[in-house]
Amino acid sequence: MTETRIRQFKIILLGDTCVGKTALLNRYVDDSFIPDADITNGIDFRIRKVEIEPGVRVKLYIWDTCGVQRYRTIVSSYIRGIHGCLLVFDLSNCESFKRIEHDLTLVSEIEPRAPCVLVGSKSDHKHRCVSREEAEVLAKTLGVPYVEASSLTGHNVKEAFETLVQMIYRNIPNAKHERFAVESRFEPQKEEPGASWSCLLM
Ligand SMILES: Nc1nc2c(ncn2[C@@H]2O[C@H](COP(=O)(O)OP(=O)(O)OP(=O)(O)O)[C@@H](O)[C@H]2O)c(=O)[nH]1
User: Fold this and answer.
1) For residues 176 and 88, which has the higher predicted lDDT (pLDDT)?
2) Which CATH superfamily is domain 4-199 in?
3) Looking at residues 40-65, what average pLDDT do you find?
4) How far does the centroid of ligand 1 lie from the alpha carbon of residue 135, in Å?
5) Strands lying side by side in the sheet with 197-199
6) Which helix (H) or strand (E) holds 171?
7) What's the pLDDT at 174?
């Protein structure tokens, strides 16, 4: 029986409408891809649990937002209290790339300490209007890591989420040196979506 402390991280996905936020989440949580999924109705959330290192388990509450402008006020209210954010744009949609700075500003105003990762989605697309170089320049300017991913193929989806989770974990003062008290013993709960442990990329 392993002693473990369970942390909870709140993560949010931001980005323009139809950039593939829900698809990233579905791929990450239950390794599925639903073509032509419905638009997110305001806000949704999923749970996934990961093991960061032996004995350190994290329950991720991942908030999926709707990119449509009329939901911005609601979305802003969900940014408060987040531990980290995925800023998503569609590699085949230049407008969605232009919006990234706006979303990062929003996060910085509300949760300035929350780390962000820039995600270029739909990397499987033949037609792209944002080059890797352009995205890397923006990421460097904003001071965030950059990951290109495809929910269709699954390429780099886990990496995108888990890069962020590692950043959040490193952000916690003395996390690595903490003695983990027995808070609870975790058993995956069948009623929760994605309720299985996975090991995090280190
Ligand atoms: N080719 C390809 N299509 C994708 C990918 N990810 C999402 N899509 C498609 O892009 C469309 C929009 O995806 P969603 O995940 O609903 O986008 P969203 O950002 O959640 O949209 P909103 O809820 O409106 O904010 C859907 O038709 C998806 O099937 C991908 O990796 N590759």
Assistant:
1) 88
2) P-loop containing nucleotide triphosphate hydrolases (3.40.50.300)
3) 91
4) 19
5) 146-148, 116-121, 84-90, 5-15, 56-65, 43-53, 197-199
6) helix 157-171
7) 60
Name the phi and psi angles at 116, rounded to 5.
-130, 155
Q: What is the pTM of this model?
A: 0.87
Residue type, 59: K
Residue 175: the pLDDT is 58
Ligand 1 pocket (Cβ < 6 Å) reads 15, 17-23, 35-37, 39-40, 66-68, 121-122, 124-125, 150-152
Q: Could you report the per-residue pLDDT of 118-137, keeping only the tens digit for each?
A: 999 999 999 999 999 999 99
Burial (CB count <10 Å: 0-12, 13-18, 19+), residue 33: middle
DSSP 1-61: ----EEEEEEEEEEESTTSSHHHHHHHHHHS---TTPPPP-SEEEEEEEEEEETTEEEEEE
What is the identity of the amino acid at 157? Answer: V
ipTM of the complex: 0.99
Largest CA distance in the chain: 51
Whole-number Å distance, alpha carbon 74 to ligand 1 midpoint, is 21
Residue bearing the CA closest to ligand 1, atom 32: 122
Kindly report the protein residue whose alpha carbon is nearest to atom 6 of ligand 1: 20
Q: In this model, does residue 3 exceed pLDDT 60?
A: no
